[in-house]
Design a protein that fits this description.
There is one protein chain. A hairpin with an 8-residue loop joins strand 31 and strand 32. The protein is built from 1 helix and 46 strands. By secondary structure, it is mainly beta. The protein folds into 6 domains: 145 residues, Immunoglobulins (Immunoglobulin-like, Sandwich), CATH 2.60.40.10; 76 residues, Immunoglobulin-like, CATH 2.60.40; 70 residues, Immunoglobulin-like (Sandwich), CATH 2.60.40; 68 residues, no CATH class; 71 residues, Sandwich (Immunoglobulin-like), CATH 2.60.40; 100 residues, Immunoglobulin-like, CATH 2.60.40. The strands form 13 sheets. Strands 1, 2, 4, 6, 8 and 10 form a 6-stranded mixed β-sheet that branches. Strands 3-11-9-5-7 form a 5-stranded mixed β-sheet, with no helix packed on it. The chain is rod-shaped and about 230 Å long. It is 1% helix and 45% strand.
Length: 571
């Protein structure tokens, strides 16, 4: 038995709910005691706890004097509880905890707790590495965990502030006097998820707080809080119009947007549209329906006058006795003909014309406009009608038969050569310079014609003179009758100045020679006309010094014609 007490050992004993009782023990060992009668029990309500004190009482019956736990080797009491019950001796609850004793007569508490009703057997053991032993009779006792009495509970749920549709989700909170969690339901224009409230429209919302109770608490009376939800203001953006008249109707444009970007434009009436200048005011309105406030406003529709397309052209031309002015068109939007509003200004008939100052009256929708264009009228050139006159014979003076030009307008004529002029034989140009009476509008004009002047009808030299190529042989110093006809008496002034005249030529030994059989006696050269024979007789007085030479006689008539004969002079 002594040996048993010297070793560490464990004795089980029973505890029961009662006043402090000493556990029976052997007379030869120290006693381990608690507050429960041996083999008894202790009772508390589920969710609660009970405190049981443990201690060691010295007995001196084991041959050891005094308290075994204070001999330098502490006594350790190990308490074991089943699942569902925890015991705590040092702030760390569990199903197995210890109490350490270093003296006797000292109470060390152990707290037993449980949330589950039932009966739980509890044991302990003691160990000490020192000398001496411990009495641990009846080491088991029973804990009784009873159901608590059911209690009433209340909910504290304060009033909720009014909201506006579109406000963000918000949380509500309520507490139950039992400490149990509170749940929420919603009616009206809202929903609730957990404690988060979402507004679904304008109107009102009722949130009800509920706690259904448990084994310990009855259901709490529901508490409801109702708050108002005001209509939201839609985001309404309406713009006016500013532009130039284009013939189309123009009005306001805009959108209405609600909570979460909802398109509310169907409720937006943008007011009147305008086509003509100056436009007007578009009075818009928004019908918000159930969830949005109505709204109204005004925007300006500003339509400014357009510029018409105006094309005005001046005039450049020759005077034609008609009035001339600008021409032009005015065109509007879509090709509209606006020419009725175009005044083309003055017209002009005479040279040099002038400036046409045009104006355009644009009326309601178009800007007025003005400008100037030149009307340039240049002088006309009169037309001259003058045909080549019939040929004339030399000696015929120019007159009305030849100088007979006419003009398209009145005026005066100056001819070159002038009337009365006798032209030489051949082709001549006649010129007329015309000066119109209306010098403002007509330029001077001129014209030319060709006239042929036929020479006198010279048929050749008559005998005794032979015509070319025959060479006439005659004695030098003779007076030779040179005879010819001009088909009529042309007067004695028929020779061109300086003519007739002779010039020395080379004698052509191959030429045919013909002697002049008839000569006359004369002291000098002379001219006469024989009307009966219709011939001229020019007595050419030759020089005796020409003997042995050849000469050519040239007769140039006033009609410009040249007539020649060759001579060989002998001694």
């Amino acid at each position: 038995m002594k040996q048993l007490f010297r070793k560490k050992f464990t004795w089980l004993f029973t505890l029961a709910l009662a006043a402090l009782v000493v556990i029976p023990f052997a007379a030869f060992a120290d006693n381990v005691q608690n507050d429960v009668v041996a083999g008894g029990n202790d009772t508390f309500t589920a969710g609660g706890s009970t405190i049981i004190n443990y201690r060691i009482t010295a007995n001196n019956g084991d041959g050891q004097t005094g308290c075994n736990a204070s001999d330098g080797s502490a006594a350790t009491v190990t308490i074991n509880t089943p699942a569902g019950v925890t015991v705590d001796t040092s702030g760390n609850p569990g199903n197995q905890v210890t109490l350490t004793f270093t003296s006797c007569g000292t109470n060390l508490p152990a707290t037993f707790s449980s949330s589950t009703t039932g009966d739980y057997s509890t044991t302990f053991s003691v160990s000490d590495s020192g000398a001496g032993g411990y009495n641990t009779n009846s080491p088991t006792f029973t804990l009784h965990v009873n159901s608590p009495a059911v209690q009433n509970q209340t909910i504290n749920f304060g009033a909720l502030a009014n909201k506006t549709y579109g406000d963000p989700d918000f949380n509500v909170s309520a507490t139950a006097s039992s400490g149990l969690p509170v749940s929420f339901t919603a009616t009206g224009n809202c929903t609730v998820s957990g404690s988060s409230v979402h507004l679904t429209g304008a109107g009102s919302c009722t949130i009800t707080a509920q706690q259904s109770g448990n084994a310990s608490y009855n259901s709490a009376p529901d508490v409801s809080q109702t708050f108002g939800i005001a209509k939201a203001n839609a985001t309404v953006n309406v713009s006016g119009y500013t532009g130039t008249y284009d013939g189309a109707a123009h009005g306001a444009t805009g959108t209405a947007t609600g909570v979460g970007g909802a398109d509310l434009s169907a409720g937006l009436d943008l007011g009147a549209s305008f086509t003509d200048v100056p436009g007007g005011t578009a009075n818009w309105s928004f019908s918000g329906g159930t969830n949005y406030n109505d709204a109204v406003g005004s925007v300006a529709i500003d339509i400014s006058k357009a510029n018409a397309s105006i094309n005005v052209t001046g005039y450049t031309g020759v005077y034609d006795a008609a009035a001339h002015g600008a021409t032009g068109t005015a065109t509007g939007v879509g090709g509209a003909d606006l020419s009725a509003g175009l005044d083309l200004g003055a017209s002009f008939t005479d040279v040099p014309g002038g400036t046409a100052n045009w104006t355009f009256s644009g009326g309601t929708n178009y800007n007025d406009a003005a400008g100037s264009v030149a009307i340039d009228i240049s002088k006309a050139t009169p037309s001259i009608n003058w045909s080549n006159p019939a040929a004339i014979t030399y000696g015929t003076a120019l007159g009305a038969t030849q100088l007979n030009a006419t003009a398209s307008v009145p005026g005066s004529f100056i001819y070159t050569p002038a009337a009365g002029t006798i032209l030489t034989a051949g082709s001549h140009t006649l010129t007329v310079n015309f000066s119109p009476s209306d010098a403002t509008n007509y330029d001077n004009a001129s014209a030319q014609v060709q006239i042929t002047v036929n020479p006198w009808a010279f048929s050749g030299f008559r005998q005794p003179v032979d015509n070319l190529p025959t060479v006439n042989r005659v004695k030098a110093g003779s007076a030779i009758p040179v005879k010819f006809s001009l088909s009529g008496n042309k007067g004695l002034n028929i020779f061109y100045s300086g003519y007739p005249k002779s010039t020395a030529i080379n004698c052509d030994t191959q030429a045919s020679l013909d002697d002049i059989e008839t000569t006359v006696t004369a002291g000098s050269s002379s001219l006469s006309y024989d009307a009966l024979a219709d011939q001229y007789n020019y007595v050419w007085k030759t020089e005796a010094s020409w003997a042995g030479t050849c000469r050519q006689l040239t007769v140039k008539l006033m009609d410009g014609t040249l007539h020649q004969a060759n001579f060989k002079f002998t001694k």
